[in-house]
Design brief:
By secondary structure, this protein is α+β, with helices and mostly antiparallel strands. The chain contains eight helices and 18 strands. Among the domains are: 57 residues, no CATH class; 112 residues, hypothetical protein PF0899 domain (hypothetical protein PF0899 fold), CATH 3.30.2320.10. It has a five-stranded mixed beta sheet. Strands 6-16-17-9 form a four-stranded mixed beta sheet. It has a three-stranded antiparallel beta sheet with strand order 3-4-5, with no helix packed on it. A hairpin with a 2-residue loop joins strand 1 and strand 2.
């Protein structure tokens, strides 16, 4: 058993992590070209390869690259909503996130309106914003897999690359959980709470706006029905002082309807027509909505949502059974931070049937 308590480490893995200030690179040793064992550490903002004497590496640097490439390749397709936040710059990076358990932030109230007078002598409220501290938990999403020492040696002696199938499956599960946290449908970490804070997603955020929408299977439903209801959702957000730009996320069951003609023999689909609405930048399908016809309209700005990244998708290694089993863990600290002001105004509208 490895653990850290009051700054003291017990166990090989915990000791390595504590000695390296929780830098996970300490658990990624590799065999250099000279046959010695190295780890990569951050020295003054620069990554350097440092030889170590008390660690025996089992993977070469190229082996780590094979694992990492396989893991990133399978993770990207599962991170659709998270990927949108990253591509839009809606992220907050925490250096050495392994050494922190919560992110402390503040919510802020508004102030009263300004006065209008000819001489400027009218009394006006002398006020200031009110700030309130909130905590966001920073849990680790992780999945384990292992190889026997014999498997690794057979791969090396045979000149064939490592079988990365299990690593890919582990990475897929980690990516899926990060995506489900953002959508708000995680069953593993449903409304995960720690340190007085709770992790929420698009569909369970208490401050989200809600809208009842018409199922496409309902009698009389048409592209106009969907267009009108999306525009109503956008107006709900504007009424809460959030004006876009918006992305509309839909459950996969919508695809067969949104990709149909907007009108009979039309040259555009319902999806194309709705995307023409001013302020709506895209419509995207997400796989993990729990409601068959759920939709979520999200203002893509940092005051509404951002992805807090304490550690990107990473694989670490340690030994058990006297070194005969090589254990690996794919892990990440990727947590959604949904935000509203102290009046609970936000730019997230959750539509259900």
């Amino acid at each position: 058993m490895d653990y850290i308590y009051n700054g003291r480490a017990t166990g090989d893995v915990a000791s390595k992590m504590l000695q390296c200030n929780f830098d996970v690179r300490s658990l990624r040793p590799y065999i250099g070209k000279d046959g010695r064992t190295y780890i990569t550490i951050n020295q003054g903002g620069e990554l350097k390869a440092v030889p170590v004497e008390n660690t025996t590496a089992t993977l070469r640097q190229d082996d780590w690259k094979v694992l990492d490439d396989a893991i990133v390749k399978v993770a990207k397709p599962r991170l659709k909503a998270v990927g949108d936040l990253r591509s839009s710059g809606l992220t907050f990076n925490i250096p050495n996130g392994m050494g922190k358990t919560v992110l402390e932030t503040e919510t802020m109230s508004d102030i009263t309106p300004a006065s209008v007078s000819m001489d400027g002598l009218r009394e006006n409220a002398n006020d200031r914003p009110v700030f309130e501290l909130t905590n966001l938990p920073l849990p680790i999403i992780h999945k384990d897999f292992s190889y026997s020492a014999r498997q690794l040696m057979a791969s090396r002696n045979g000149g064939s690359p490592l079988d990365t199938t299990t690593a890919e499956l582990a990475a897929r599960r980690v990516a899926e959980e990060a995506e489900k946290l953002l959508i708000g449908v995680s069953t593993v970490a449903d409304q995960y709470s720690f340190g007085g804070g709770v992790i929420y997603g698009y569909t369970d955020f208490p401050s989200r706006l809600t809208k009842t929408i018409t199922a496409p299977t309902a009698s009389g439903w048409s592209g106009d029905t969907f267009l009108t209801e999306v525009m109503a959702m956008m107006q709900q957000s504007r009424n809460a002082y959030h004006y876009g730009p918006f992305v509309l996320y839909v459950a996969s069951a919508w695809d067969q309807y949104l990709d149909d003609d907007y009108k009979a023999a039309s040259d555009k689909t319902i999806r194309n027509r709705v995307k023409e609405v001013e302020g709506l930048t895209d419509i995207k399908t997400l796989d993990y909505f729990t409601g068959t016809y759920d939709v979520a309209l999200v203002q893509m700005t940092s005051d509404v949502v951002r992805e807090v990244i304490g550690m990107d998708l990473t694989t670490v290694e340690w030994d058990t059974v006297g070194g005969l089993q090589k254990n690996f863990k794919v892990m990440a600290i990727m947590v959604p931070q949904l935000r509203s002001d102290q009046n609970s105004n936000t730019g997230i509208v959750h539509g259900t049937t």
